[in-house]
Amino acid sequence: MKNVHVGLGDRSYSIRIDSGIRNRSQEFLPWIAGSQVFVVSNEFVAPLYLAEVRAALGGKEVTEVIIQDGEHVKSLETATMMFSRMLEIPLDRQATVIALGGGVVGDIAGFAAACYQRGIALIQVPTTLLSQVDSSVGGKTGVNHPLGKNMIGSFHQPRRVIVDTETLGTLDTRQFSAGMAEVIKYGVINDPDFFEWLEHNIDAVMELDQSAVEYTIEQSCRNKASIVEQDERESGVRALLNLGHTFGHAIETATDYRSWLHGEAVALGMLMAATLSCVQGWITELELGRIQTLLERAGLPTQPSRDFSSDTLKENMLRDKKVQQGRIRLILCRGIGRAVVSDDYSMSALDRTLREFANG
Ligand SMILES: NC(=O)c1ccc[n+]([C@@H]2O[C@H](COP(=O)([O-])OP(=O)(O)OC[C@H]3O[C@@H](n4cnc5c(N)ncnc54)[C@H](O)[C@@H]3O)[C@@H](O)[C@H]2O)c1
Ligand SMILES: [Zn+2]
């Protein structure tokens, strides 16, 4: 069992990481104040794991809400449906929401918990690698709007995060790799020792070796927790967590959020950020090669793609919310483990980087 503390004063909580904890009452019950529990899961995850989580909630009055699978359900319509269910019961202010699933379930269930009666308790039980190392930690909740992804939301920290590594056994390899992009990201941002550990242990992680996976999730959550502790509401250092994301969002937009998984786009985006840093002379060719090799070994894309042109990527980047006076603020690196926020790079170096990875 690994335990990571997120220290945010009276909003502090623990992230519990172990194999087979989804049915342990002692992991849940002490953190549930009232008698009512509202469990949100999706049509794919519920048949796999909901009965076991329910078994851990003995004695509570449990309501289940099963939503469809897919990013499209992260909408205000789904949230409204949840609010209606909550009000019909009706849930009181001591009720607890449990989010059982990947980042989509976590974000929308978290949003419902954040809004219902101005905020009720939330427990995250993330079941994808991405949600275990990233979205379930840090309190960002929200839904998509037709005019922008994740544009409607709120900060609402969970009371506890329960990571059952056994659930990764049913996740497909491509989704697992996508989560690894965020894992590798923590090493590149802030943690050169973890990056090096990954270089030595990536094969064991990819084979789901229990202790390697547990350590990977623990270190990732520690890194995220330490950044969130310094800057809970993203007014400064938390922006570093967007390494690879401005490039990545441009790829996701160019491909209509269909053919590339978020983590895949972030992986190539991170490599673009590293390449631009290298063109600027901020990291060495050797460091750039190490990042590329690690991403490849995690099953992530690193090669130029025909799915988009450099012009489309640049247009999309200029529409990103991080643009100030026509200059795109990017997260770049001054070494592995030393990410910086910068708009101090040459535009021709950016153009060159985009052309290197895009189709013309
Ligand atoms: N709140 C944050 O800080 C934050 C951070 C990063 C990403 N996000 C959000 O997270 C979402 C992406 O999360 P995701 O990658 O987990 O996607 P997801 O929730 O769509 O899960 C990916 C797929 O895996 C399935 N799945 C989940 N657990 C499984 C399991 N144990 N076995 C088999 N299949 C399983 C899901 O049903 C889905 O089909 C996006 O909406 C993104 O915006 C939020
Ligand atoms: Zn991400």
Write a brief structural summary.
The protein has 360 residues and is α/β, with parallel strands linked by helices. Helices cover 45% and strands 19% of the residues. The protein has helices spanning 25-28, 46-55, 76-88, 103-115, 129-135, 173-190, 192-206, 210-230, 245-254, 262-279, 285-297, 310-318, 347-357, and strands at 2-6, 13-18, 36-42, 61-67, 96-101, 121-126, 140-145, 148-155, 160-164, 323-324, 327-328, 330-333, 339-342.
> Roughly how many Å apart are the termini?
49 Å
Total helical elements: 13
Count the E strands. Answer: 13
Strand content: 15-25%
Class by SSE composition? alpha/beta
CATH homology group of the largest domain: Dehydroquinate synthase-like - alpha domain
* Helix percent band: 40-55%
CATH C-level class of the largest domain is: Mainly Alpha
Task: Please provide a written account of the structure.
The chain has 360 residues and is α/β, with parallel strands linked by helices. The chain folds into 2 domains: 169 residues, Rossmann fold; 185 residues, Dehydroquinate synthase-like, alpha domain (Up-down Bundle), CATH 1.20.1090.10. It contains 13 helices and 13 strands. Strands 1-2-9-6-5-3-4 form a 7-stranded mixed β-sheet, with helices on both faces. It has a two-stranded antiparallel sheet with strand order 7-8. α3 crosses α4, α7 runs antiparallel to α8 and α12 crosses α13. The site of nicotinamide-adenine-dinucleotide has 26 residues, from α4 and α5.
Key features of this structure:
45% helix; seven-stranded mixed beta sheet; Dehydroquinate synthase-like, alpha domain; globular; two-stranded antiparallel sheet; 2 domains; binds zinc ion; Rossmann fold; 360 residues; binds nicotinamide-adenine-dinucleotide; alpha/beta
